[in-house]
Amino acid sequence: MSDADCLFCKIVAQEVPAEVVHVTERTVAFRDINPQAPTHVLVVPRDHYENAAALAAGDPVASAELVTAAAAVATAEGHADYRLVFNTGAGVGQTVFHTHLHMLAGRPMTWPPG
Ligand code: 5GP
Ligand code: ZN
């Protein structure tokens, strides 16, 4: 289940390089190329789903694994506090249409997000 034109499918397939920090059966986590916090990691399912809701409907086990993988990376990097974000739709800033969970940590954060 991959899309030949999808950047994150290519990262999962190791056709595009990325700094991978954690892998599980269903997920791959790698550092964001344009980090918005001292720690900014993207956790993606190995299979191609356009957004978080599609993944949750199609593969709930992988959906849960995104969160547990993000928590494992936060713990491994010494962060008890972190923020998880799924952007869904171009109108709120989604630019890559392969589900990805942002895990951001290492600085104070404001609420609501911009
Ligand atoms: P979105 O805006 O879709 O929620 O998040 C996409 C994220 O992917 C952005 O934070 C962006 O910096 C990151 N990104 C885009 N291209 C690449 C890339 O080639 N490699 C990595 N590691 N991150 C990327
Ligand atoms: Zn993809």
Task: Write up this protein.
With 114 residues, the chain is of the alpha+beta class. It has one domain (7-105): HIT-like (HIT family, subunit A, 2-Layer Sandwich), CATH 3.30.428.10. The chain is built from three helices and five strands; from the N terminus they run αβββααββ. The protein has a five-stranded antiparallel beta sheet, covered by helices on one side. Strand 1 and strand 2 (27-31) form a beta hairpin. Helix 2 (52-58) crosses helix 3 (60-76). The longest helix has 17 residues, at 60-76. 25% of the residues are buried. The site of guanosine-5'-monophosphate (5GP) has 14 residues, from strand 2.
Structural class: alpha+beta
What oligomeric state do these chains adopt?
single chain
C-alpha termini separation: 33 Å
| Name given to the CATH architecture | 2-Layer Sandwich
In sequence order, what are the helices and strands, one letter per element?
HEEEHHEE
What is the CATH topology classification name? HIT family, subunit A
The ligands bound in this entry are:
guanosine-5'-monophosphate, zinc ion
Number of helices: 3
Uncertain spans: none
CATH superfamily: HIT-like
Shape: globular
Biggest beta sheet summary: 5 strands, antiparallel
Q: Walk across the major sheet and give the strand order.
A: 1-2-3-5-4
Number of strands: 5
Mean pLDDT: 97
